[in-house]
From TrEMBL:
Every DH domain range: 52-243
Coiled-coil stretches: none
Any single Pfam family the record assigns to this protein: RhoGEF
GO biological process: positive regulation of Rho protein signal transduction
Entry GO CC: cytoplasm
Domain of life from the UniProt record: Eukaryota
Alphabetically ordered keywords of this record: Cytoplasm
A GO molecular function held by the record: guanyl-nucleotide exchange factor activity
Record-given protein name: Neuroepithelial cell-transforming gene 1 protein
Subcellular location: Cytoplasm
InterPro entries tied to this protein: DBL_dom_sf, DH_dom, Endocytic_GEF_Adapter
Length: 444
């Protein structure tokens, strides 16, 4: 019996030794569990990395398409109507919109190339996009960052000119207010917010390319190109920032600092965490504002009279996100959809804090269709957000300008999201989508 067992064991060992070991084609490690992809032997870890790489490529293409859509909104919904109506002189238009038409042209060419390489991969049945070389394409289009540089260096002065003209020209102010309130394509964003989009876009390129680089195998032909692209874009950003600072504007330096903070890897992680909390489809979501707010919870209703002297405000990461309903879509592949137009149907304020390198919720999201946003005229440094089912919170920005910016966007996004109900006993009015509050309500 013992001899038979030894013979059987020896036979199995000889058979195992005779079989060739399976080696992962990407990391060169022995494959314990064989996994095939495009007739290649890939270990489970590398297969997961391929999936992440594919998703990142899709995000790069999709966000570039969305960026181009917003550029055309600026051109077609603001620049052209303002020019035709003679709301501003040509010199004033040029000082506000800068080289917008050049940015549109560059984006159209770049988007066409990105879409083309994905279409080619689809035609060749390259489901994992292993033959797609995004880093190499970025290096070929490095000249497009010259257009970004022209825009970014002068963007702050453009905003200041726009603000001054809004104060001086009543007709211009009325046009911008009506457009923001009535034009569904604008998603209730004002012109100043749209003018920030090219700056936000160039800040996002290093984030996306760095993610793609980390998920690309070292043996992949695009790996070196991706590394060079990340280094090159970061160098361009440093040059843009240096030219911006040389203007000597303290206000400009502060805005650039904030922009870097909220347009880096942190911003992506913040939005990702917020989407997980909201359980919204990322293709329908727009981040209207991402920044820092100071918040507290008052213990009584007399905080206005006390002017918050005894209240301790805590800084948190704040995200104002809207969810749009797609109206028109086009496809590059069956698995990649690009939203062309959307109407805001949900909006939420999400509060997060960092802990251990990750972000977690400070509290449940504040859905604006169930909130009241108020500012006491006696004390405008703080605004209140009251969730009619729960509690009240006080917020303020890092300065008065930021506070006003948050208030305006919160109020704009909360419009037309529900039906207003008036509560008795001088309790603030509330808004709800389907049902009013359960107690003491009457339709207003």
């Amino acid at each position: 019996m013992c001899l038979d067992y030894q013979s059987m064991l020896t036979s199995k060992l000889e058979n195992c030794a005779a079989k060739p070991r399976l080696i992962c084609c990407e990391c060169a490690e022995v494959v314990v569990y064989k996994t095939s992809s495009n007739n290649e032997t890939v270990c489970q870890q590398c297969l997961s990395r391929r999936t992440e790489r594919k998703e990142t490529i899709q995000e790069i293409v999709q966000t570039e398409v969305n960026y181009g859509r917003d550029l055309k909104i600026i051109l077609e919904e603001f620049y052209i109507p303002m020019k035709k109506a003679n709301l501003l002189e040509n010199k004033e238009l040029a000082s506000i919109f800068l080289n917008l038409e050049e940015l549109v042209h560059v984006n159209e060419k770049f988007t066409k190339q990105l879409s083309g390489i994905l279409q080619e991969a689809s035609n060749k049945k390259d489901e994992d996009y292993q033959k797609v070389n995004i880093g190499q394409l970025f290096q070929e289009y490095f000249h497009m960052f010259q257009a970004f540089e022209k825009y970014c260096v002068n963007q702050t002065s453009a905003i200041e000119i726009l603000e001054q003209l809004e104060r001086d020209r009543e007709v211009l102010r009325a046009f911008l207010q009506v457009s923001q309130a009535e034009n569904s394509l604008l998603r209730r964003m004002n012109l100043k917010s749209f003018l920030m989009i090219p700056v936000q876009r160039i800040m996002k390129y290093p984030l996306l390319l760095n993610r793609l680089y980390k998920s690309t195998a070292a043996r992949h032909e695009d790996c070196a190109f991706l590394h060079e692209a990340v280094v090159g874009i970061e160098k361009i950003l440093e040059e843009i920032n240096a030219k911006t600072k040389s203007s000597g504007s303290m206000k400009l330096k502060r805005k650039r600092s904030e922009l870097r903070r909220h347009s880096s890897t942190d911003k992506f992680e913040l939005v990702k965490t917020a989407l997980n909390l909201l359980e919204w489809n990322q293709h329908e979501v727009h981040d209207i504002l991402v920044g820092t707010l100071l918040y507290t919870q008052p213990q009584d209703h007399f905080w206005t009279a006390k002017k918050c002297r005894n209240l301790k405000f805590t800084p948190v990461h704040a995200l104002l996100l809207t969810r749009g309903e797609p109206q028109q879509e086009s496809t590059i592949t069956k698995k990649l959809l690009f939203t062309q137009q959307s109407i805001v149907r949900q909006a939420a304020l999400v509060l997060l804090r960092g802990k251990g390198g990750r972000y977690q919720a400070v509290r449940d999201p504040l859905y604006l269709d169930k909130c009241v946003i108020t500012v006491d005229p006696v004390y405008e440094e703080v605004f209140e957000v009251q969730d009619w089912n729960k509690e009240s919170y006080l917020f303020k920005g890092e300065d008065d300008t930021e506070t006003h910016r948050w208030v305006q966007q919160l109020k704009n996004q909360s419009k037309n999201l529900g039906v207003w109900w008036r509560r008795r006993n001088a309790v603030p009015d509330i808004k709800t989508n389907n049902e009013g509050p359960a107690d003491n309500c009457e339709d207003s």
